[in-house]
Design a protein that fits this description.
single chain; about 100 residues; mainly alpha; 1 helix; about 75% helix; IncF plasmid conjugative transfer pilus assembly protein TraB
């Protein structure tokens, strides 16, 4: 069988193809292969992007959790400081000598 022949799918006998038909078949096959290649390439790009984003998203999530914890601790410390200041003020006011009454 020569390159310009195809085998009959039923009997296997070689069938001659005209140059025009051969060019059309080649064009169809090339277009199909290009489309498949583009789809496979796009899928590979999406997978690669997803794999690349995973550690970044995990790190970002950890940093956000750490920030939330730090903010919680800061708020607790500020609340404790406020409580201590109120207690100090109350003690100072209680320790002041009472004003003398004029005679």
């Amino acid at each position: 069988m020569t390159p310009s022949q195809i085998a009959c799918p039923r009997c296997g006998e070689p069938i001659a193809l005209s140059d025009a038909l051969l060019a059309q078949v080649r064009g169809t096959v090339e277009t199909d292969l290009k489309q498949r290649h583009a789809a496979e390439l796009q899928a590979a790009v999406w997978q690669a992007e997803a794999r690349a984003k995973e550690p970044i998203e995990r790190d970002l999530r950890l940093v956000r959790e750490q920030l939330a914890e730090q903010q919680r601790k800061t708020q607790e410390a500020q609340q404790a400081e406020l409580t201590l200041r109120k207690e100090k003020t109350a003690l100072e006011l209680g320790a002041l000598p009472e004003p003398e009454e004029p005679a």
